[in-house]
Amino acid sequence: MATKRRKLSNPLALAVMVLLTERSMHPYEIAQTLRRRGKDASLKINYGSLYTVVQNLEKHGFVEVAEVQRQGNRPERTLYGITDAGREEATEWLSDLLAVPAQEYPIFEAALSLMGVLHPDEVARLLAERLNMLEVRAASLRGGMEKLYETLPRLFLIESEFKLHMIDAEAAWVRGFLAEVTAGTFPGVKEWRTFNETGEVPEEYRNLEDGDVERP
To answer: Transcription regulator PadR N-terminal domain location, by residue (predicted)?
Structure first.
């Protein structure tokens, strides 16, 4: 099942609509609330882009001006509320994202697909560096979550839990692959070394260019 093409694709727009289901807010308050709840770890949030997102949501009828506040000599503050169309859009969009795996293009995956141009020893050094950083990041996130679990329901930390799981999974894979490269047990590592040390493309690699290879 493919996801529906939406009028807006920025995940920040979805976050705004979800937040406005609680109550009407002005853009600055929306940004502060998202940051206070730690959503800036999953979403790129800055006031300028958020204001543009709110304007686009209003343009498509997903949010509307709920109130204009004026206090003394302070500038007016426009509060936005979600519309019925916005509630429907947020529900459908979120349901799609949860149910349908999207084809994404992680930069690490791209780097792995091109790493053959580097010597296996250099790749091993770089991956060892990456592994160390992943372990530090996981430890830091795990420690922060343990404290947050004391005051917040697990529901509000579930994305951090998923992130930690993904970091642990990546670290486990890198650790295993690194062990294979270091021990010389990775299939084709001899040809990989030869290519980087002599510049000569192994026969096995040249043969791959003669026909189509189906990728998973």
So the answer is: 16-91
